[in-house]
Design goal:
Blueprint: H1 8-20, H2 23-30, H3 34-48, E1 53-55, E2 60-62, H4 64-91, E3 95-102, H5 104-108, H6 110-121, E4 124-131, H7 137-143, E5 148-152, E6 160-175, E7 186-188, E8 198-200, H8 201-212, E9 225-227, H9 230-238, E10 244-247, H10 251-254, E11 259-265, E12 270-278, H11 285-307
Parallel strand pairs: 3-4, 3-5, 7-11, 8-9
Antiparallel strand pairs: 1-2, 5-12, 6-10, 6-11, 6-12
Length: about 300
């Protein structure tokens, strides 16, 4: 007998009558007439091929076969209701798994804080962070390895959409006793000639190359060392062995090292941070909801970071 011949209404009516021992009471619970409930039970009995209730003028009691069937029917209805609740959660962006790609600084600072706040709103949504080098952010989104990503601006092509979140100036980070801290707020590129600079990875090289397009000849800088991680560059700078150039939002990591920030001007370079999402592939409701939240949250976070900047 095909399972599709059952209807949920029939099962609901059966369980309601079994619990109430009354067609009238069951009908009241279901918002139906007693005649309608009786009809649903009769249809279900015809499909099953056995009687579910023993009826007398005084009471309605489960038959022996009805008692045997009740457990399976109750389990079926419980699972259906659970599935219906799960569908509501998905539809309302209240459950699901979201994979977010981000480079080191954002992955260990802004993103976990955003995740904690979102978890309080949507406790059934699980957000997984994926550490992704800046140069691979767009590719990971395009290939579906992550649902969304946040990080510095990169060319996206047709498969990935980019939404600007905030701008962050490219600045100098140095030890508090470094000679460059004598400058009140800004350092010119020309004043970096001969200064030991440690850079962090290809992302830094890409950004410096962009800056050099606008920097006058003779004032371009070349790092004395290139390391893989920004935390390593910050650690070297903290010991006064070199200075490092990085976006201002790196301050959330740089300040605990005791580093001091100075703007680099003439010209000043600005780094744009973006949210990346698939252009043609639809996000799951959970990912779509978190993406909307994350965009707004990161914008507010960037404003707070600006307020915390030193002189």
């Amino acid at each position: 007998m095909p399972l599709t011949r059952f209807t949920l209404r029939q099962i609901e009516a059966f369980i309601a009558v079994a619990e109430a021992h009354s067609f009238t009471v069951a009908a009241s619970r279901l918002g139906l007439t007693a005649q309608a409930v009786s009809q649903l039970i009769a249809e279900l009995e015809a499909l099953l091929g056995f009687r579910l209730f023993d009826r007398t003028t005084r009471k309605v009691a489960l038959s022996s076969a009805g008692r045997d069937f009740l457990g399976s029917a109750a389990t079926l209805l419980r699972h259906v209701r659970a599935a219906d609740s799960a569908a509501d959660d998905v539809r309302n962006r209240a459950s699901g798994v979201v994979r977010v790609g981000a480079p080191l600084v954002l992955a260990c600072t802004a993103l976990p804080m955003a995740m904690r706040e979102y978890q309080q709103r949507k406790p059934k949504v699980v957000v997984r962070v994926r550490d992704v080098p800046v140069d691979h952010l767009v590719d990971r989104v395009a290939e579906g390895d992550v649902d969304i990503a946040i990080g510095p601006d990169r060319h996206t092509g047709e498969t990935v959409a980019s939404t600007p979140l905030f701008d962050s100036a490219w600045v100098l980070w140095c030890a508090a006793d470094h000679p460059l801290t004598q400058h009140q707020r800004a350092v010119r590129w020309s004043e970096l000639a001969g200064v030991a600079i440690v850079s962090a990875g290809r992302d830094h090289e890409h950004s410096v190359a962009q800056m050099h397009q606008d920097v006058p000849a003779g004032t371009r800088v070349t790092p004395v060392d290139v390391v893989d991680n920004i935390s390593t560059a910050l650690g070297i700078a903290a010991q006064g062995l070199a200075v490092t150039l990085a976006p201002a939002y790196v301050g959330v990591l740089a300040r605990p090292f005791g580093l001091v920030m100075r703007r680099v001007v003439e010209p000043e370079s600005v780094r744009k941070v973006c949210l990346y999402a698939p252009a043609a592939r639809a996000l799951s409701p959970a990912a779509e909801g978190f993406a909307e939240f994350l965009g707004d949250w990161v914008r507010r976070w960037s404003v707070d970071q600006q307020k915390e900047k030193g002189p």
